[in-house]
């Protein structure tokens, strides 16, 4: 029994679904081949572009983010194609494993999971690839296993500066609608996303935002694809329909989410996330703990990964917090298992929710006997209240 009051879902996805979106989703499911649906979805397929800041099509699948990864790789590439990938953390590693399984030939640039992509290393690989064998560069924008953000436009610059024809694929599953992302301006060919993080929806939708160049590449790409085929989507999408049954009710929720994002203003949404991320880091620093991300230019808006002091179990700490305070924190993944925990601060989230979250962490540290200094919550409150005064002035 979780007990009274709202559960604090502070994992970095799925995130808290606002009541407004829950109410939008609970409308009756309609005929997805009927006129009412076509009109609704046509508008939605256009308005979702304002979130990706793209002019090309956005394909929406009834799938999780992992399905959208597969859609990106299989539509754009052929068996044995070389792809350049970057080990920012667990999610980048999973995408690379998928590329292996699909019969691609990934080169994986190793890293220590404490920062985002170093674009110079991408530039080096591309500059040495004078035969242009690399067909795609794949990076994760916000690496959700660490809380490190990569500077996507610098990666795009590396491709442009080396005059390399490779496609740029970017995983924006946990950054979309939490940190600025500009598909067209940053010359991204395929952006991969999911519904359950910054978009504030339940899990179940996967996205591919696709450039003209990637659409063109898909016509001659030979990896097998069926369910995820862009080619099957293009014609029905043009009039607001799908080749098979879409997740109708999640699409209602998506339309509501896009309205909410624009009512607040995308820039205000990003600023809110950046502010909560900074407040969280101030708390972590005051506790005397270390963030997983060690590069200040790469701090992510969506979440903060925190290293557990040597000899203490992050999972035991999370279990105690869940049982005592009814709050879920993210676990350490793969090589950070039991060594780190993650505080999600993205989606439908405000100052007092962050204050509650950090209070739960600070009380948990005390209860679990984890060596720390008090005052992390206070440091975050001081930062947030000072910020509010300057915003009001
Ligand atoms: C959550 C996440 C995924 C995987 O998405 P699923 O919906 O769990 O399949 C991929 N990449 C990143 C960066 C994520 O945060």
Gist of the model:
Helices cover 43% and strands 15% of the residues.
What would you say this structure looks like, in words?
This protein is of the alpha/beta class and 393 residues long. The chain folds into 2 domains: 8-14 and 265-392, Aspartate Aminotransferase, domain 1, CATH 3.90.1150; 19-262, Type I PLP-dependent aspartate aminotransferase-like (Major domain) (Aspartate Aminotransferase, domain 2). It has helices at 19-25, 35-47, 49-52, 65-76, 90-101, 119-128, 152-161, 212-220, 230-237, 248-264, 266-287, 314-325, 351-367, 376-392, and strands at residues 8-10, 58-61, 82-86, 105-109, 134-140, 142-143, 148-149, 167-171, 190-194, 206-210, 290-291, 303-307, 327-331, 340-344. The chain has a 7-stranded mixed sheet, sandwiched between helices. Strands 1-13-14-12-11 form a 5-stranded mixed sheet, with helices on both faces. Strand 6 and strand 7 form a beta hairpin. Helix 6 (119-128) runs parallel beside helix 7 (152-161), helix 11 packs parallel to helix 13 (351-367) and helix 12 crosses helix 13. It starts with 7 loop residues before the first strand and ends with a helix.
Give the topology, please.
Layout: E1 8-10, H1 19-25, H2 35-47, H3 49-52, E2 58-61, H4 65-76, E3 82-86, H5 90-101, E4 105-109, H6 119-128, E5 134-140, E6 142-143, E7 148-149, H7 152-161, E8 167-171, E9 190-194, E10 206-210, H8 212-220, H9 230-237, H10 248-264, H11 266-287, E11 290-291, E12 303-307, H12 314-325, E13 327-331, E14 340-344, H13 351-367, H14 376-392
Parallel strand pairs: 1-13, 3-4, 3-5, 5-8, 8-9
Antiparallel strand pairs: 2-10, 6-7, 9-10, 11-12, 12-14, 13-14
Helix pairs in contact: 1-10, 6-7, 10-11, 11-13, 11-14, 12-13, 13-14
The chain binds pyridoxal-5'-phosphate.
Residues 13, 64-66, 91, 140, 144, 171, 173-174, 194, 203 line the site of pyridoxal-5'-phosphate (PLP).
């Amino acid at each position: 029994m979780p007990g009274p009051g709202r559960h604090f879902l502070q994992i970095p996805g799925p995130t808290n679904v606002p009541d407004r979106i829950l109410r939008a989703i609970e409308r009756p499911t309609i005929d997805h081949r009927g006129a009412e649906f076509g009109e609704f979805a046509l508008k939605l397929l256009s308005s979702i572009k304002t979130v990706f800041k793209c002019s090309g099509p956005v394909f929406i699948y009834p799938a999780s983010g992992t399905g959208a990864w597969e859609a990106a790789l299989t539509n754009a590439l052929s068996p044995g194609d070389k792809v350049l990938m970057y080990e920012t953390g667990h999610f980048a590693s999973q995408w690379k494993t998928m590329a292996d399984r699909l019969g691609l030939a990934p080169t994986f640039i190793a890293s220590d999971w404490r920062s985002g992509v170093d674009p110079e290393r991408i530039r080096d690989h591309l500059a040495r690839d004078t035969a242009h064998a690399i067909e795609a560069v794949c990076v994760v924008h916000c690496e959700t296993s660490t809380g490190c953000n990569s500077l996507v436009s610098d990666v795009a610059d590396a491709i442009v500066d080396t005059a390399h024809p490779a496609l740029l694929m970017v995983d924006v599953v946990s950054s979309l609608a939490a940190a600025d992302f500009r598909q067209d301006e940053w010359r991204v060919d395929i952006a991969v996303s999911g519904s359950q993080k910054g978009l504030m929806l339940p899990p179940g939708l996967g996205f591919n935002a696709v450039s003209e160049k990637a659409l063109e590449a898909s016509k001659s790409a030979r990896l097998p694809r069926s369910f995820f085929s862009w080619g099957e989507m293009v014609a029905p999408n043009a009039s607001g329909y799908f080749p098979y049954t879409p997740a109708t009710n999640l699409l209602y929720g998506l339309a509501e989410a896009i309205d909410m994002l624009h009512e607040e203003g995308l820039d205000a949404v990003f600023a809110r996330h950046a502010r909560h991320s900074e407040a969280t880091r101030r708390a972590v620093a005051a506790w005397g703990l270390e963030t997983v991300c060690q590069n200040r230019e790469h701090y992510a808006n969506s979440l903060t990964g925190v290293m557990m002091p040597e000899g203490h179990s992050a999972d035991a700490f999370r279990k105690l917090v869940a049982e005592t305070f009814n709050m879920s924190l993210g676990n350490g993944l793969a090589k950070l298992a039991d060594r780190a925990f993650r505080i999600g601060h993205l989606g439908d989230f405000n100052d007092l929710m962050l204050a509650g979250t950090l209070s739960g962490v600070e009380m948990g540290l005390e209860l679990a006997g984890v060596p720390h200094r008090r005052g992390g919550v206070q440091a975050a409150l001081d930062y947030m209240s000072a910020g509010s005064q300057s915003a009001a002035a």
